[in-house]
């Protein structure tokens, strides 16, 4: 059963125990939702859905349907995307790989993102789509200085996911917010994500957590010290841990490991991060690494029954593997052959017989002489 505990006031730092802490999800279920694995992103995905003409320079094909309404003008949108030059397999940008979604204020985007903005404005939260953008709404006649592989007059292809958006009037960007406003906005998203998690809507929950994390980008965190940094981490770290819980549910174990590792880079003794990373590693068959995580978690939470159970499970797996290997080798080489008695040498037997015969004859002649 998934248990959730909430405290409306931010705490200075994330709880390091493996029990339910402020704003963090404790997962005890073992069932998982099966989803289609993400594509590797080396080339634009092959999409068979109908082409929707948004205008004469932007077209869209839906990869995955979204939910809710579409963002309005000046909405602050959070998106992930990959970008290619049309007709080329060369990918020149990938926010998924960088693990940082971008913020796009519709109607205020950079000139080279005009086509991307038009596409995003016609998407719903959670929707993933393929956008075909004419060069005039991309990098134009001169191409890109930042991406030399984008030549002049290059048509573009985007694989885009709209994580979510804030429909704020006049579009207040993160950079225009105070520290308190950004932390508050992130905390709102985290709470919404927790509600989705309770409903077992793991994809929707992750969208909310990812939006919350987007308010806490590296550039923002780098500027924070003291109580403000503690306040931000008290929201940011639970979001990473809750994303890891969702990803484990969705059997996306590599991504879950990455989320836990982000938390451990800030708090190397975080028991929840160690435990969940251990779970994900165990599912991937990385037994030794998983055991290392569980043992370290046990060091800081020695009475935790979940940790003890996982360590026992690993020990049982090791024992079962040993028995299996033992049986395999036994069957491979067969039973050890019984030692055979050495064949007696014929000459040795003959010589012994001859000596015995001569001895007998000698005794016989002696008796006659007497």
From TrEMBL:
Keyword terms: Isomerase, Repeat, Rotamase, TPR repeat
MF annotations from Gene Ontology: peptidyl-prolyl cis-trans isomerase activity
What's the top EC group for this one?
A: isomerase
Record region (Disordered): 1-46
Record bears the keyword Oxidoreductase:
no
Q: What is its EC number?
A: 5.2.1.8
First and last residues of every TPR repeat: 271-304
Q: Which reaction does it catalyse?
A: [protein]-peptidylproline (omega=180) = [protein]-peptidylproline (omega=0)
PROSITE patterns membership:
FKBP_PPIASE (PS50059), TPR (PS50005)
Q: Could you identify this protein by its name?
A: peptidylprolyl isomerase
The species this protein belongs to is Oryza rufipogon (Brownbeard rice)
């Amino acid at each position: 059963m998934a248990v959730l505990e909430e405290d409306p006031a931010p705490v200075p730092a994330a709880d390091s125990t493996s029990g339910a802490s402020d704003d963090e999800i404790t997962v005890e279920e073992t069932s998982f939702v099966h989803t289609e694995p993400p594509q590797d992103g080396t080339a634009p995905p092959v999409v068979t859905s109908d082409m929707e003409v948004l205008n004469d320079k932007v077209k869209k094909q839906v990869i995955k349907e979204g939910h809710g309404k579409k963002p309005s003008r000046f909405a602050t949108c959070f998106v992930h995307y990959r970008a290619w030059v049309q007709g080329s397999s060369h990918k020149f940008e990938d926010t998924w790989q960088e693990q940082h979604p971008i913020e796009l204020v519709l109607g205020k985007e950079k000139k080279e993102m005009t086509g991307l903005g038009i596409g995003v404005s016609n998407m719903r939260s959670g929707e993933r789509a393929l956008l075909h953008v004419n060069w005039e709404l991309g990098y134009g006649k001169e191409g890109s200085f930042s991406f030399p592989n984008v030549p002049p007059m290059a048509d573009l292809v985007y694989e885009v996911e709209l994580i979510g958006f804030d429909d704020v009037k006049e579009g207040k960007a993160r950079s225009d917010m105070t520290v308190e406003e950004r932390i508050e906005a992130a905390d709102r998203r985290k709470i919404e994500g927790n509600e989705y998690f309770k409903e077992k809507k793991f994809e929707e929950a992750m969208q909310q957590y990812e939006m919350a994390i987007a308010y806490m980008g590296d550039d923002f965190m780098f500027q924070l010290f003291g109580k403000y940094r503690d306040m931000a981490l008290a929201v940011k770290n639970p979001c990473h841990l809750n994303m890891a819980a969702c990803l484990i549910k969705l059997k996306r174990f590599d991504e879950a490991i990455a989320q836990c590792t982000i938390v451990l880079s800030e708090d190397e003794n975080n028991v929840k991060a160690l435990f969940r990373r251990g779970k994900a590693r165990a599912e991937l068959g990385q037994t030794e690494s998983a055991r290392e995580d569980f043992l370290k978690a046990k060091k800081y939470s020695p009475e935790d029954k979940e940790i003890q159970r996982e360590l026992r499970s690993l020990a049982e797996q090791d024992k079962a593997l040993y028995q299996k290997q033992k049986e395999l080798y036994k069957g491979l080489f067969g039973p050890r052959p019984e030692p055979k008695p050495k064949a007696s040498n014929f000459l040795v037997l003959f010589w012994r017989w001859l000596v015995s015969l001569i001895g007998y004859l000698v005794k016989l002649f002696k008796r006659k002489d007497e």
